[in-house]
């Protein structure tokens, strides 16, 4: 249990705090943004989400720099990302800020890739995240952050960048899932 893995686990432990912060009606009020409002709980949730997402870069940087890359880390890191982003997307659907059908497509891809990783793990192989998967995660994080912030600051100019980036995230998520299965199909083909 090295430092990068501890950071990854801390990201997982931040998820329930994030869910409570955004979902429980604390009645903290909101900020006016032109014709829109940004609940303070969503602002705080966005800040916590961004901090938790940043730990993904931090744990990877430390693991690579100090040669602390482990199979546990290769497994836990993408799992923590999936749990954090999936929880945030579900919260956004509940808040009426994201279409459920897009969230279902994104989460379905995440389950499929996790299933492939579990089949590989059963055969003693660990499949690390691909560059396309990392791009997918980054775009998902940007989308979730913008949607939690009710599209601030783009709401002032009427540019729905949050929802546009969510559509883009869905497209890249589907493509990266296809690419991941294509490159690792041998795992399914050769599994015992």
Count of helix runs: 6
End-to-end CA span: 30 Å
Broad structural category: mainly alpha
- Count of spatially separate domains: 1
Contiguous low-pLDDT stretches (5 residues minimum) are none
> What is the CATH topology descriptor?
Four Helix Bundle (Hemerythrin (Met), subunit A)
Strand order of the largest sheet: 1-2
- Annotation, overall tally of beta strands: 2
Sum up the overall morphology in one term: globular
Instruction: Report helical residue fraction.
Output: over 70%
InterPro entries: CDP-alcohol_PTase-I, CDP-OH_P_trans, CDP-OH_PTrfase_TM_dom, CDP_ALCOHOL_P_TRANSF_CS, Phosphatidylglycerol_P_synth
Subcellular location: Cell membrane
Function: This protein catalyzes the committed step to the synthesis of the acidic phospholipids.
Catalytic activity: a CDP-1,2-diacyl-sn-glycerol + sn-glycerol 3-phosphate = a 1,2-diacyl-sn-glycero-3-phospho-(1'-sn-glycero-3'-phosphate) + CMP + H(+)
Structure, explained:
The protein is mainly α and 192 residues long. The chain has one domain (3-190): CDP-alcohol phosphotransferase transmembrane (TM) domain (Four Helix Bundle (Hemerythrin (Met), subunit A), Up-down Bundle), CATH 1.20.120. It contains 6 helices and 2 strands. The chain has helices at 3-23, 40-65, 71-94, 100-122, 131-148, 161-190, and strands at residues 30-33, 36-39. Strands 1-2 form a two-stranded antiparallel ribbon. A hairpin with a 2-residue loop joins β1 and β2 (36-39). α2 (40-65) packs antiparallel against α3 (71-94). The chain is globular and about 55 Å long. The two termini are 30 Å apart. It holds the Pfam family CDP-OH_P_transf. It is found in: Cell membrane. Its EC number is 2.7.8.5.
């Amino acid at each position: 249990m090295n430092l990068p893995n501890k950071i990854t686990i801390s990201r997982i432990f931040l998820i329930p705090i994030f869910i409570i912060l955004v979902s429980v009606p604390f009645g903290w009020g909101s900020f006016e943004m032109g014709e829109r409002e940004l609940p303070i709980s969503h602002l705080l949730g966005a800040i916590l989400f961004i901090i938790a997402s940043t730990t993904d870069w931090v744990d990877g940087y430390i693991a690579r720099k100090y040669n602390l890359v482990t199979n546990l880390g290769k497994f836990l890191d993408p799992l923590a990302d999936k749990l954090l982003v999936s929880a945030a997307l579900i919260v956004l659907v509940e808040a009426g800020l994201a279409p459920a059908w897009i969230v279902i497509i994104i989460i379905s891809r995440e389950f499929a890739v996790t299933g492939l990783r579990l089949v590989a793990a059963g055969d003693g192989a660990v499949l690390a995240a691909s560059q396309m998967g990392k791009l997918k995660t980054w775009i998902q994080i940007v989308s979730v952050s913008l949607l939690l912030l009710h599209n601030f600051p783009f709401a002032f100019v009427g540019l729905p960048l949050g929802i546009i980036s969510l559509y883009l995230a869905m497209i890249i998520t589907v493509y990266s899932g296809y690419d991941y299965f294509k490159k690792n199909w041998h795992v399914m083909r050769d599994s015992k």
